[in-house]
Specification:
It is a single chain. Helices cover 35% and strands 14% of the residues. With 136 residues, the chain is an alpha+beta fold. Strands 1-2-3-4 form a four-stranded antiparallel beta sheet, with helices on one face. Helix 1 crosses helix 2 (93-102). It is elongated and about 85 Å long. It is found in: Nucleus.
Amino acid sequence: MGKRKKAAKKPTGKKKNEPLPTTFQCLFCNHEKSVTVKMEKKQGIGFLNCKVCGQHFNSGINYLSAAVDVYSDWVDACDDVAKRAAADGGGEPTGGYARRQSGGAPREPASDDEGAPGEMDDFVEEDEMDAEAEYT
């Protein structure tokens, strides 16, 4: 005696993968689908731009990167700036990020007591007076 034959299952087709999103919510103005990400894989740079508030961000990418990776880099950078601003005792989070990337804190104007870097005229004048005294 043999077993009963089971009904053959019909093959299911391949599942189509949905593409990853390229538009996201802006962290600054909270508009849905206002942030677009464009990727230049040949140059290795991902560009992020908000249509509403004008925020922009660039990030390095590789051949495996997707638009979500550039967005997550932006979120991480914003969180890092917020943590630094909180540790420094406040400040402007967006302006502070640009300042730190360009090489440090802004310069404060020199007071009259300290003397400006270009004010060496007093020293040179005193030196000339000594030289004239030696010749006479």
